[in-house]
Each structure stands twice: as structure tokens, then as C-alpha cells.
Amino acid sequence: MAQTDTLARLEATVLSRRDADPASSYVAKLNARGLNKIAQKLGEEATETVIAALAEDRSALVGEAADLLFHLVILLSARDVPLAEVLAELDRREGMSGIAEKASRPS
């Protein structure tokens, strides 16, 4: 099964739980606490991912990376940004030098 299928299923799950009862859904609970809390949680997960990478702990890195992607999808959902839009941006950048891509951004 393609990884994009996994991400699409994750996005569908997050969307379906976004407005659920916060007592029964972590996604709903996080959304009820607001965008600042969602962003803070994403930052925490990013930090934990970096720590796992630097510790050279492969299984911890895999787990933290999964947490990071999960929380990123929650943040995107909270801002009504479809994952397809992010994937389209990655497709647009494919084959472009990272240096050239960054230089093409408006300042």
C-alpha cells in the first residue's frame, strides 16, 4: 500500500474526529484547546523527533516521526489546509534545487 494512502487515511480520520466529543477523541480534545495548543504540540513533537535522531535510536526516531506527521495533519486540518495541497507543493518542488527553490520565494 502506498504511503500517500496511509496519509490520506490519517487525514480522513483526523477530519472525522475533529468535531467529536473531546472526552472520547484526542484529535477533538486538541482542537477544542485551539490552534495555539495544536501548534505547541507540533513543536514538542518536532523537538522529540530531533532528540531521537541525535540519539541514534532508530525505533524512537520512527515513533517520533509518526507522532510528528500525525500532529502536522491535525494542524493542517485545523487551518483547513488539505494534505493534497501540501503534496502538490512538494510535487511542484520536485527536481528543483533546494537553494533555487528557497531563492524563488517572495521575501
TrEMBL record:
Name of the coding gene: hisE
GO annotations of cellular component type: cytoplasm
Family recorded in the similarity comment: Belongs to the PRA-PH family.
Pfam families, A to Z: PRA-PH
Pathway in which the depicted protein is active: Amino-acid biosynthesis; L-histidine biosynthesis; L-histidine from 5-phospho-alpha-D-ribose 1-diphosphate: step 2/9
CDD domains linked: NTP-PPase_HisIE_like (cd11534)
HAMAP family reported in the protein's UniProt record: HisE
Protein name, entry field: Phosphoribosyl-ATP pyrophosphatase
Sample GO molecular function, one term: ATP binding
Documented EC number(s): 3.6.1.31
Keyword annotations from UniProtKB, A to Z: Amino-acid biosynthesis, ATP-binding, Cytoplasm, Histidine biosynthesis, Hydrolase, Nucleotide-binding
Main subcellular localisation: cytoplasm
Catalytic activity field: 1-(5-phospho-beta-D-ribosyl)-ATP + H2O = 1-(5-phospho-beta-D-ribosyl)-5'-AMP + diphosphate + H(+)
Gene3D superfamilies registered for this protein in UniProt: MazG-like
InterPro entries, A to Z: HisE, PRib-ATP_PPHydrolase-like
NCBIfam families: histidine_hisI, PRK00400.1-3, PRK00400.1-5
GO terms (BP aspect): L-histidine biosynthetic process
Subcellular location: Cytoplasm
Entry keyword Nucleotide-binding: yes
SUPFAM superfamilies per the UniProt record, alphabetical: all-alpha NTP pyrophosphatases (SSF101386)
Keyword Amino-acid biosynthesis included in the entry's annotation: yes
